[in-house]
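S.,

Sequence below, as promised.
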Amino acid sequence: MAVEEVQSESGDVSVSAGLSESADSLGVQRYPVAPGYRVNVRSGPGTNYRLIKVLPYGSRVPINCQKPGEWVSGPYGTSNLWDNIANGQFIADAYVNTGSDGYVTIRCS
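The prediction came back faster than expected:
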């Protein structure tokens, strides 16, 4: 089990640009990332995958599909689910308020 190295409000991390808002205009459901956290976006479902970017505070993300991977503890519990938020981009579900402890969409292939 891992604790994903996300930064809370007191941490210093350079933050890349947020996700495109075009998904909102298409009626895609977006889920809030835990308040007070900058969450790492990785190239696969685990902390050993390459860090792509860091989401800014207050981010909301679409979940295209979900995939099991490394177990991670976060503000919403401990889970091995990882959420695909864009092509080749995953975040630990333990940092996303989906309202569920399980899958909320299809499994990634």
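The longest helix spans residues 22-25.

Coffee later?
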